[in-house]
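Reproducibility note. Readers wishing to regenerate the assembly model reported in the main text can use the exact inputs given here. Chain order matters: entities are listed in the order in which they were concatenated for prediction.
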Amino acid sequence: MTTPSALYDSLVKIVGKDFVSDRKEERYFYARDGGLMPPHEPDFVVMPKTTEEVQEIVKLANRDKVPIVPVGAGLALTGLVIPQRGGIVLDMKRMDRILEVNEKARYVVVEAGVTQGILKSHLQKHHPRLRHSIPDSPPVATVVANAVIHGQGRLSQQHGFNSDMVSGLEVVLPTGELCRIGSCSVSSYWFSKGAPLPDLSGLFLGWFGTTGVITKLGLKLYPCKKMRDVMVFLTDKAELIPDIMLKLSHTEMIEDVVVSAAPLPLRFRGTFWVMTYITGDSDEELEFKRKMVWDALWEYFENRDVGFLSVSPDMKPPLMSMPSKDTSRFADVSKGGGFQYAGPITPVEKYPAFIKKLEEVAAKYNVFYASTTRLIGAGHCMMFSFSFSFNRANADEMARAKKALDECSKFALDEGGVLWKADVYEQKLLMDKMDPNTLALMKKIKQLLDPNGIMNPGNWEVK
Amino acid sequence: MHKYVSQIHRCFRCGYCKFPTDYSSFNCPSYRRFRFDSYSTGGRLWLIYAWLKGEIEWSEHFAEILYTCTTCKNCTEQCPMKFAPDIVDWIVGARSDMVEKGKIPPRVARFFEAVYGYGNPFKQLRSDRAAWANSTKKYAPGDEYLLYVGCLGSYDENGQKMARCLVDILNASGVSFGILGEEEECCGNEIYMLGETGLFQNLMDKNTQKFKELGVSNVITLCPHGYNTMKNLYPASGGSFKVYHYTQILNDLLGKNRMKPSRAKARVTYHDPCFLGRYNNIYDEPRQILQSIPGIELVEMERNRRDAFCCGGGSGNFVTDLLAGSADSPARIRAREAYETGADTLAVACPSCLTMLTDAVKAENLDGKLAIKDISQILRELLPAR
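Running the prediction on these inputs yields the following structure tokens for the assembly.
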């Protein structure tokens, strides 16, 4: 068994002493996130710069059976990168190169530490006709981590989960081998993560780093129109939301549909905001799409069930910004720096039941709430967020928020939803409900890939 | 300042503070230098909160994390929360508590000791404070302006050059002014930012008292740090004089045709000092000066104005140098960024930036390819010799 000091020396030898820490301050910070999961400290925080360094670290960890947890920005809020068994946290953010943008095949290849913000900025500056599906997480969230948790973004209404837009992977397996997934395994092009080959990306996407360390990722890019606008519709009838979303989706003209509900400010309590984003290359195109949207919802206007909000100039920039800073601002509603949400993926028909449950639970536990729902695919499902803000200096409020979250997660599961970026407790709920043969398959895959169980242990742990 | 104790837990560590407005790169100098999240603003605030709660003990490493913050205010610009304007105060508040407990990094302690003992952070003799000044006239009642040159202008080789150039320009333009010479005290901006509130109060009181005795009503500062503290902090101590950064004065003189620089031939990029830009919203005057000089082509770095990347010198780091020792040191990154614009000259308006970036150009082997000049130097070279 290697001693901690020998392990430290080995890590220093691989990445240099500036990029290894076993000091309390780094261990404290990387032990927790902005959510409600209990902290657990790593023994080391290490920042590799190259794939080769990652390989050496993984081989070392596998040899000594030391847990290893790859980390992006740690913004999942459900503790997915809290090192439940200690060991090595691999902060990937030094692997920050954008390696290739193929304009003709519309994809980008990035290293694992490239952030959403830096990719957005790079595309705007160098490839203004292309864009990627920007999530609402802060810009420091990494592209890879967002794909690994099946994130969603501004293009999810059109193209599905952000992980559906992955077009190739480079992965360091838990035993140290380097593996390419998708077209890049047989070609120099990164245009497909699977088809027409067996799609092996499913061995890594959604596994929260328990099956390997993704070091490079190909991501599909999409046309970036010259103009963009938002139309905001208001209704106080939750039961109409599913149909509104489907009607909007039916136009096949919409960039993104987001439904927001919050009790504050008070003037908006009980009102659902349906934010409908459209894009175009000309005024004519944009105007045509506006007309299509109006036509789609016309019967609701006539019945006075839905109203149109004229967006004032000061309201527009926050609504249009990508990512939206308002998402982070929710953490300060209770003046306390804490925010977590349960985000089940569920059919859109569940919206009325879910919003009712959210309001009930928030009242029951006396916690601040909000909900932001995003349509995914052409109405195939939605991400409904049961969001709770809490004060980190108030242990009682944190406990109430946790109870509220747990109750919402259980409710969502009972209603047929599937929990998104589930924390370790929610993962257990999911696995308890999962088809036993599916569970057995997961176990076989995990054992095959990670025989020593070093990768992000505690997560997706099939007993 | 101490309201940080009841507020600091409000940081969500969302990380907006690390970026410029367009997210094109990391704009927090200490995070960019060290890359552990503990060195970002969010990291610092969470660690301070942990310290207040007793979850972590003080350590030299913790103190260094706190003191590698240059208080450049990028975080304040970018943080989406309502408490954003308070972030620097929170960090200064925590530093102040460390100072009270006597638990600060040795380099910071030496900075304080030097100012206590010598009245400047360089341990230079007070009698040498005006050694740069040649025969510059001392301030006398009736002079329109007091020229306050500060510690860098008084003792640092680069700062002294700046001061001499500025004096020449003011004289050539017929401005009525004088200096304090050996009677000048440290302005205290860095002392304040480093958390030594007692010493800061003492320096502020001395300066304010001196200005009152002399009947000073207008102060020109060479350094944005002095400008900041006199403009924003001194009024609390009864300072009722007007403060100008020298670029404001020179821009005004140019506008009134009180000097006529000859034609230059230079491609110049300008680095916004944090204490001039983000702290005091002075972005235009330095640029207007450069643009008014015939033959100068002004090109912007990608990060400019409120998004300018700090040189790493703030909060006393031009002396303590806690961010040095790497190609990722902020000044070296900034020097490379300036060079990438194709400029042959990097213009600054701050003696701290001048020193930091001059050293960085040497470290980057850009000597002879990129000249670092203060705006006063650029202008002086284009005026007739005296």
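We highlight two features of this model. Chain B has three domains: 4-104, 118-251, 261-381. Chain B has a mean pLDDT of 96.
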